[in-house]
Amino acid sequence: MVRVCSVHDVPDPGALRVEVPTPSGTVAVAVVRDEDGGLHAISDTCSHQAVSLSEGDVEGCMIECWLHGSAFDLRTGRPSALPAVHPVPVYALAVDGDDVLVDATADIGPAAEAR
Asked: Of 4, 14, 76, nearest to 47 (Cα)?
């Protein structure tokens, strides 16, 4: 896991785009704070089109793509609103003091099994 930001950098609720280094390059990740204050790490790229999810709105434990309105569950990556039909990767996230740590080397979401 690598440090990607401070807990205080993430809007409440809202999302922050970060670039996470991996052995094969960098991965764009949205670090998202849901309406209950929980933190999540998902791919920052909508599976419908290459649009940044971190620019969308957070409602409950969902993030909505600002361009076409697809919504994704922050825990599973599964879409709950069209036009997206494919899930987005979910990554491991940990908090150590004030630091947010993310491991973007593998999709840990339950939706990964469906891919």
From this structure: 76
Indicate the CATH number of 2-114 among 2.102.10.10, 2.40.110.10, 3.30.70.330, 3.50.50.60: 2.102.10.10
Per-residue pLDDT reduced to its tens digit, 8-66: 999 999 999 999 999 999 999 999 999 999 999 999 999 999 899 999 999 999 999 99
95 DSSP assignment: E
Q: pTM here?
A: 0.94
Domain spans of the chain? Answer: 2-114
Query: Does residue 5 sit in helix, strand or coil?
Result: strand
Could you tell me the maximum CA-CA distance found in the chain, to the nearest angstrom? 38
Q: Which residue has the tokens 């949205």?
A: 30
